[in-house]
Amino acid sequence: MLARVLSATVWGVDARLVEVEVDVASGLPTFQIVGLPDTAVQEARERVRSAIKNSGFFFPGGRVTVNLAPASLKKSGSEFDLPIALGVLAATGQMKFTSSSVVAMGELSLSGEIKPINGALPVAHFLSLSGKNYRLFLARENTKEGALVENLEVYGFRHLNEVCDFLQGKIDLSPVTLDRESLFSLEGVGEDLEEVKGQRGGKRALEIAAAGGHHLLLIGPPGSGKTMLARRLPSLFPPLSLDEAIEVTKIHSVAGLLSEKRPLVSQRPFRAPHHTISDVALIGGGQWPRPGEVSLAHHGVLFLDEALEFRRNVLEALREPLEVGKITVARASTTITYPASFTLALACNPCPCGYLGDTKKTCTCSYRQIARYRAKLSGPLLDRIDLQVEIPRLDFSEIASEKKEESSQEVRERVKRAREIQAERFRGEKIRLNGQMSARYLRRFSSLGGEAKKLLEASMESLALSARAYHRILKVARTIADLEQSETIRVEHVAEAIHYRSLDRKYEEF
Amino acid sequence: MEDRNFWIAFNHVMGIGPIRFQKLLNVFGDAKTAWRAGVKELSEIIGPGMAQKVEEERKKIEPEKLRERIESKNFKVLTLKDDFYPSLLRNISNPPFLLYMWGDFDFNQLDLFISIVGTRRPTPYGRKIARILASELAKDKWVIVSGLALGIDGEAHSSVVREGGITVGVLGSGLEVIYPSSHRRLAEEIVDGGGAIISEYPPLCPPRPENFPPRNRIISGLTQGVVVVEAPKRSGALITADFALEQGREVMAVPGSIFSPQSEGANNLIAQGAKLIQNKEDILEALGFSSGKAKKSYGEDSPLSGEKGELFSFIDSSGVFKEELLQLTGWEEGKFFRVLLSLELQGLVQESPGGKIFRL
C-alpha cells in the first residue's frame, strides 16, 4: 500500500516542499530511501524502525520503499524522520492518514520522541506565503519559531504517539499562537553606551557609523575599550522592524542558533568571530551550504577584533558582501545566496607592540615599524572603511569619573533623525544611506560650498592625504552634517571628517 | 708608505683595537714586522687567543689586495701617523689607529666642530630643535658631527645638507654597509656637499650592536662639544655625553617637558651640570665664543588669540591626546575639529600616529 506525507527542506534561507512517498510491498524485508538523500537521511531508517516499534506499533516485514520527491533536490538532515514514520504507519494501515494539508518535520529518537530541527522558521515562512492552508507539524521546541509567521497553523508534538492520536482525532490540540509583539520586546536592549566612561571620540565615531551606515576601524592599545565600544554599536541603530527581524531570524534558524527561549532575533545581531576563523565559516559554505558569520550579522554588526591577525583570504572574502550586501555560495551540488548586509567594525592595535597611545606603557616600536604596520592595514579592504579612529587608553581617574554619560537611547534619537533625512534624500534611488554613495552620488548630494571646499583642498595638500581619502571624507562629512540636520556641508563637518582618516595621513618620514 | 697596508690588515682582524695595536707597534716598531711575527711572539704581547686569531686571519688576508679594494671604492684611509688625521681626535685617550673615510674632506683645514646627537625616536619637538640648531650652526660655518642614525642624528645631518653646510657622519658599521640603509641617500648628499662619512670598522663590517658605544667616542672626540637634543633615560646619546665629559669636551643639553619620556635623559644631564641650551647663542657661549649678539628666544608668546589660542594653550611639545583636548576645552566636536585643523594647517601643531597632538 502507498502513503503520501508532505514535508519540507530548507533551501538557503528559503524552503521547498518535499513529498514523502512510502510504499510497503511483500517480499524480502528491506528498507530503502531514494531521492538524493545524504547520510543523515539514510540513517532515518534505523531511527524510524526503532521509533515505530517502541511507540507500540509494528514495523512491516516486507519491502519498504521511501521516495523523497522531487528526486532532483538534494536532501540532508534528520527532519524527514517524522514524515517517513507517519508514512510507514499509514501505508501499513496502522493509522488512517489522508490529509494533504499536513506538513511534518522532525527528528525521531529511538523511543519515538520528536526532537527539534534547524530551519523551522524558513519553512513556516514559505508555507504561509504559499497561500494554501497548510498545517505545520513540528517538535514542541520548534513551535514558537514556526508560529512567528502569520496565516499558518503550527502544531507542536512531543512524541510520535501524540501525532497519531491527534490525526485519529483521539486528542484535541489547538494551533500554537504567539504574541509576536510581546516577543519582539522580550529581549533587553543589550549593552548600553552609557556604561562606557569617557571615550568621546570613539562614541562619536560610533554615532556617525550608525547614522550613515559607515564601516569603521578602531585603532587602540589593548585595554583601551575597542571591543567595549564596538559591542555597543548595534544599540545605536534604529530597532529592527518585524520584517527585518524575521529575515534575521530565518538565517539564525537555518544555522540552528535559535532556542525555545529565544525564538525570535529581535535585536540587531553582533557577531565577533575569532581571528582563526576560516573563509568558509566567515562567508558561508560547506558541502551543504550553511550561512556564515557575514550572514548571521545581517542587519547588524560584524566585529573583527585583531583585524590584522585574520588570514588574508578571509579578509578578501569580505569584499563581495560589503559591495552587494549578500553572498552567493557556489558548490558542486548547488548555488545558494544568503543575505549579508552588515556594518563592519574592525579593531586593531596601533603598532606592532600595541602600546602606542597608551598612557601607562611606552611603545617600543620604531617609527619605521609603525609605518610598515600601518601600511599593512591599508589595502583593498580598508578602502571600504570610512571611519578610522584612534582610541587611546585612558587614565583610571578619567574612567572613574562620575559624570553621567549619554545613553544609547539619546544617541539613537539623533541617528534616527539623520536616517530620516537620508531616506528623504535618496527617495527613488537605489541606496538608502550615505555610506553607500558612489562617486556619482557624491557629486550630486555631497558637494561642498566655497569655504569648506577650500579647507578640504588645503588639507589634502598639507596633511598629504591620499586621493582615496577624498571621497571618504565627503561621505562622512555628509553624515556629520545630517546628524546636525544641516543641509549644507560646513567647514566644521569637513574638519571633523578629515580627522577620521588617520591611516591615510602621511606622517613625517623618520 | 708600504706599512699602511699592514695597518689596514690589522684593522681587519676582529679584536685588534687601538690598545692592542699600540702594544704591537711598541714591540715590533712597525705593522709589517708585527704581521709577519711568529705566533709565539705575538701571544706574549696580545695573549694566545688573539695571536691565534691573527694567525688564522693572515692566512686569508692579502694586505695589498685590501688596500687596492679600498682605493677602488674611492675610500681614503687615515692612520694615526698621517698629518691629515683629525687633530682633535688624536688627543683622546684611545683614538682609532685607523679611520676609513668616504668623501673629500680635510679635518685639519677647519676648526669649528660640534656634534648634535639624540634619540632615534624623537618627538616633533626634538626634530624641530635639531633642525633649528643644526642649520643655524651650519650657517656660522660649524661642521656638524653626528651618527647618521634615524631620528635626531638624521635630522641634524639633513638640515646641514639643506643649508649647504658641511657635516660628518660617523658609522658603527663599515662604509659599504650604510646603516640604516634608508640613510644611504642622505650619506651621498653629505659626501656631495663636501662632508664625509667615516668609520673605524672595515668597509664590509656589519652594524654590530657592540660597535656603537665605541663609535660614540669618535663623535665626541672629533668635536669641541656635544649637544644632546632629546634623549630618553637609556640612550646612546648619553653614552656620547659621557665620552665627551671624559675627553674634556663641553656637554650641552636641550631641556624638555618633564612629562616627555623622550627628554628624561637630556633633563638629567642638565641636572648633573650640562649646559642648558635654549638657542644657538647658548652653544657658542658654552664653547667660549661670546658673540655679544642678543640671544634668540623661541618662547615668544603665542600670537594666537581667541579659540585658536585657547586650544593651542592646552597642547605642549610632549603631546596630548585628542580625547584629552576634547575634555579640556569642553567644546563640541564641530568647533573642536575646525580649530584643531586650522592649527594643523598653520603648521603650529601636528598629529602623530596614536592620536596625539604635538606642538611644533
Beta-strand portion of chain B reads 5-15%
Gross morphology of chain A: elongated
CATH secondary-structure class of the largest domain in chain B: Alpha Beta
How far do the termini of chain B sit from each other? 54 Å
**Rg of chain B, please?**
24 Å
Largest interface summary: A-B, 43 and 34 residues
Helix content of chain B: 40-55%
Write down the overall geometry of chain B. elongated
CATH class of the largest domain in chain A: Alpha Beta
CATH architecture of the largest domain in chain A: 3-Layer(aba) Sandwich
Class by SSE composition of chain B: alpha/beta
The overall average pLDDT of chain B, rounded, is 90
Strand arrangement within the widest β-sheet of chain A reads: 11-14-17-10-18
Mean pLDDT over the residues of chain A: 87
- Report the uncertain regions of chain B: none
Q: Care to describe what's here?
A:
The complex is a heterodimer of chains A (510) and B (360). Chain A is α/β, with parallel strands linked by helices and 510 residues long. Chain A has 3 domains: 2-178, Ribosomal Protein S5, domain 2, CATH 3.30.230.10; 194-428, P-loop containing nucleotide triphosphate hydrolases (Rossmann fold, 3-Layer(aba) Sandwich), CATH 3.40.50; 437-510, Helicase, Ruva Protein, domain 3 (Orthogonal Bundle), CATH 1.10.8. Chain A is built from 21 helices and 18 strands. A 5-stranded parallel β-sheet of chain A has the order 11-14-17-10-18. In chain A, strands 1-2-4-3 form a 4-stranded mixed β-sheet. In chain A, helix 8 (200-212) packs parallel to helix 17, helix 19 runs parallel beside helix 21 (491-498) and helix 20 (467-483) crosses helix 21. The longest helix of chain A has 18 residues, at 408-425. Chain A is elongated. The model of chain A has no long low-confidence stretch (mean pLDDT 87). In chain B, the strands form 2 sheets. Chain B has a 9-stranded mixed β-sheet with strand order 1-2-6-5-4-3-7-8-9, sandwiched between helices. In chain B, strands 10-12-11 form a 3-stranded antiparallel β-sheet. Chain B has 3 domains: 1-65, 5' to 3' exonuclease, C-terminal subdomain (DNA polymerase, domain 1); 107-286, 3-Layer(aba) Sandwich (Rossmann fold); 306-359, Winged helix-like DNA-binding domain superfamily/Winged helix DNA-binding domain (Arc Repressor Mutant, subunit A, Orthogonal Bundle), CATH 1.10.10.10. Chain B has helices at 3-11, 18-28, 31-36, 39-46, 48-60, 63-72, 87-90, 124-139, 152-163, 184-192, 212-221, 236-246, 264-271, 280-286, 306-314, 322-329, 333-345, and strands spanning 75-79, 98-102, 113-118, 143-146, 167-170, 196-199, 225-229, 250-254, 275-276, 320-321, 349-352, 356-359. Chain B has 17 helices and 12 strands. Chain B has 360 residues and is of the alpha/beta class. The longest helix of chain B has 16 residues, at 124-139. The interface between A and B is large, with 43 and 34 residues.
